[in-house]
Design a protein that fits this description.
The protein contains eight helices and twelve strands. The chain is an alpha/beta fold. A five-stranded parallel β-sheet has the order 2-1-3-4-5, with helices on both faces. β4, α4 and β5 form a beta-alpha-beta unit. α2 packs parallel to α3 and α6 crosses α8. The longest helix is centred in the C-terminal third of the chain and has 19 residues. 34% of the residues are buried. The structure holds calcium ion (CA). Calcium ion (CA) binds next to loops.
Length: 227
């Protein structure tokens, strides 16, 4: 497993690297305190997961995230500081896969790394899924409603796929969490809410309907589909 840490606080880098090595002795860790170099390393080092601090000295973490997502689906965990909930929401909207608030517990950090690295991907033989008036290209994250197209993020696409496969029945938060982060994940309903809110808006742009994804309070969601 290869882990890239983009973080300018050397103490945090050291403690993260140490935790990773104790848990996975074969792990290869690369790190940088600069956003630009981090971007290059995503390409050249091709990590299995990226740990990304939002406050960096050259370009900020959001810019790194935006640029990485132009060419890579690598799982990204953003590091945020306590009290900056807006940053977390913005990061998730930009398709970060998860977040950790500093200071954090090592066990929590390791659990999140593990679940993202093990996440099952969309089967290669199933790249297009069609149902009703919807057609979704799973590897490209392109969603069509009749002839109208919108591009989803990877997380939005995974959620859309889960919801439409189970259209007109309730999909629970925990089953969405499993889809996004794997089986033994502690779960983050807040992150799911951010992704779904964004997804709902995108679906509205192609369908003109903002009630396609209906919220079932404290349970999950229903995808309303007429077939
Ligand atoms: Ca920083």
């Amino acid at each position: 497993m290869k882990v890239l840490i983009i973080e300018d606080d050397e103490n945090i880098v050291e403690s993260l690297a140490l935790s990773l090595r104790m848990r996975w002795p074969d792990v290869v860790v690369s790190s940088t305190g600069m956003g630009e170099e981090g971007l290059q390393l995503v390409e050249t080092f091709s990590p299995d997961i990226v740990i990304l601090d939002l406050g960096l000295p050259d370009i900020n973490g959001f810019e790194v995230l935006r640029q990485v997502r132009l060419f890579s689906d690598v799982p990204i965990i953003i590091l945020s500081v306590l009290g900056d909930e807006d940053d977390i929401v913005r990061g998730l909207e930009m398709d970060a896969d998860d977040y950790i608030v500093k200071p954090f517990k090592k066990m929590e950090f390791l659990a999140r790394v593990k679940s993202l690295v093990r996440r099952k991907n969309v089967p290669v033989d199933l790249t297009v899924y069609e149902r009703g008036s919807y057609k979704v290209f799973l590897s490209l994250h392109h969603l069509y409603y009749n002839e109208n197209k919108v591009t989803l993020t990877k997380s939005e696409c995974l959620i859309f796929y889960k919801l439409i496969q189970n259209a007109n029945s309730v999909v629970t938060y925990s089953s969405i969490a499993r889809e996004l982060w794997g089986d033994d994940y502690p779960g983050s309903i807040e992150a799911i809410r951010v992704y779904v809110q964004r997804l709902r808006k995108k679906i509205e742009t192609v369908t003109g309907n903002n009630a396609v994804i209906e919220t079932k309070s404290n349970v999950g969601y229903i995808f309303n589909l007429q077939e």
